[in-house]
Amino acid sequence: MKIAYYFILILFCWSCSSDASDGDATTPTDDDAMTVTNPLLDFTVPSNFPDATYSIAQNPPTEKGFELGKKLFYDGQLASDGVVSCGFCHIQSFSFTHHTHITSHGVDGQIGTRNAQPLHNLAFMNEFTWDGAATFLDTQPIIPITAEVEMNETVSNVLSKLSADDDYPTLFAEAFGSEGVSADRMFKALSQFMVMMVSANSKYDKWERGEAVTFTDQEHAGRAVFNTKCASCHAGTLQTDQSYRNNGLPIDPVYNDIGRERVTGLSTDNRKFKVPSLRNIEITFPYMHDGRLGTLEDVLDFYTDGMVDSPTLDDQFRRPDGTFGLDISPEEKVQLIAFLKTLTDNDFIEDRRFAEF
Ligand code: HEC
Ligand code: HEC
């Protein structure tokens, strides 16, 4: 899918209206009118990807909308302390996760209960967060903005700050073609920035698309093991079937996170979490919803020896003899990790379009 045409916006020179409020009575004339071009950005679905779930037609990313979304993403004004921006917890070099803390740290150093998720390929996801509490990307940011342990702010306060800012009113007008700082526009701009975060240039992608890369023997062997033991859940190109499952993590005595049950209220969803995409998994440690596992070796050791039973444990982990876990030999573990590293997309984490500076 390729969209490439141009919006031409005619805007009045905003400095004139602020001059007016400073007591200068000049009214805008035709000479003050400026033409702002706001080209649509090229949102292309990679040829090895499924269709986007996000409705690009309803909120097509534009150059100005994207730039506004990026500024908002890296702006501490969205938090009550003026410091904790989205980018504070979602750091590009780690595929927009946070490393220094196992679970996220927000305003006043308050500790959240969950591990910050990577932000990539969000345009292809049905639901968001570890338990699927957000069903629409545009409304997801309400959660971090208002969560006490994250940005601890209200949307209306954020809008007041942005409206009083020197730059935002102009940037909103340029992005959306008319004056007005609103919640709807703020969330649309954040989405425009986030849907452009397509990560599709790993070695694995190139191999899938038949480009000139070769897998080593170990990577090939790892892919075969992955297909038999992991791909039923970490499925397809996106590396997730987007379902919620209990993979047998021992209950965490501190947070006792009930997972998907929090959203549906169903005991059958107890301790189920969204199957995470394994794209860029090499750099998004620590692992699992609460970041309890530090390395990929730890993850594989957990799958073979660390699982605990519970009523909602996924049936795929139940062995005929009544025990549970996956059977993976030490050699296969090495192969699996070699394969998982083919999912790292360095072009994405180094892409200057998404960088703060
Ligand atoms: C204090 C750290 C923190 C801040 C600040 C933060 N996030 Fe997050 N983000 C998280 C955590 C933790 C999760 C997982 C939440 C959960 O599962 O309940 C998450 C999840 C997400 C997701 C869902 C990803 C997915 O794959 O489902 C999106 C999108 C997101 N954040 C965007 C944002 C945006 C936009 C902002 C700024 C408005 C923001 N975040 C601010 C920590 C943070
Ligand atoms: C029955 C479904 C299922 C199977 C099979 C499965 N996983 Fe998972 N995997 C999950 C779920 C669900 C989670 C998230 C659990 C949580 O955080 O509570 C997860 C988490 C992970 C994580 C952590 C990801 C992150 O972002 O923190 C890794 C790595 C992982 N799995 C690798 C594998 C590998 C490798 C295999 C095969 C050996 C495998 N999984 C098999 C369902 C599955």
Task: Walk me through what this model shows.
- This protein has 13 helices and four strands.
- The protein is mainly alpha-helical and 357 residues long.
- Residues 1-33 have low confidence and may be disordered.
- One heme C (HEC) is lined by residues 229-230, 232-234, 245, 247, 249, 273, 275-276, 278, 281, 284, 287-289, 299, 303, 314, 316, 326, 328, 336.
Q: Would you count the extended β strands for me? A: 4
User: Class of the largest domain in CATH?
Assistant: Mainly Alpha
Which spans of ≥5 residues are poorly predicted at pLDDT below 50? 1-33
H-E string: EHEHHHHHHHHEHEHHH
- Overall, the morphology is globular
Distance between the termini: 30 Å
| Class derived from helix and strand content | mainly alpha
Biggest sheet architecture: 2 strands, antiparallel
- CATH topology grouping of the largest domain: Cytochrome Bc1 Complex, Chain D, domain 2
Number of helices: 13
The CATH architecture of the largest domain can be given as: Orthogonal Bundle
CATH homologous superfamily label of the largest domain = Cytochrome c-like domain
| Rg, nearest Å | 23 Å
Bound molecules: heme C
Which band does the percent of strand residues land in? under 5%
Lay out the secondary structure.
Layout: E1 6-11, H1 14-21, E2 34-39, H2 63-73, H3 86-89, H4 142-146, H5 155-164, H6 168-176, H7 183-195, H8 203-208, H9 217-229, E3 244-245, H10 261-264, E4 273-274, H11 296-306, H12 330-341, H13 346-349
The chain binds heme C (2 copies).
